[in-house]
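Format notes (please read before filing issues)

Several people have asked whether sequences and structure tokens are stored in separate files. They are not. Every record keeps both together, in the order shown below: the sequence lines, then the token lines. Line labels are part of the format and must not be stripped during preprocessing.
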Amino acid sequence: MVLLALLLFAAGVTAPFFQVQKFWLFGDAVSVLSGLRELARASEWFLFAIIFLFTLVFPAVKLVALGIIWWKRGVDDDGADRLLQWVSHLSKWSMLDVFVVSILVVTIKAASVANITVDIGIYLFTASVVLTQLIALRLERRLR
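Then the structure lines:
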């Protein structure tokens, strides 16, 4: 399950999150990686840092930690339990990126600047986040 969540995560951040059509003439597929490139190009370092941290770093660290917990279970239950508690605290912050993307979409739609349609990347990324949460719950039950 951890491997599946990792694959969904990788596919989710590289696939388009949404399609943007500006004035019905130009279309653009926006993925997490292309969005980060654009933020860096525009020198929007605060938004870049938040999205990079909460969309790439936190989920990747969380998945690696869950993989370590899976391998350590039964061998070092105390270490796995401490790591699982840390993952639980980290999980509380891992949805901030979804919140930021949601605000961005609502703002653009409200301003009628562009037409935005959701694409496969957001579904893959969301599936990864949900699966990661389920893995953490299952591991927590197993360790207890």
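For reference, the curators noted about this record: The helical segments are 2-14, 32-41, 45-72, 77-91, 96-110, 120-143. The longest helix spans residues 45-72.
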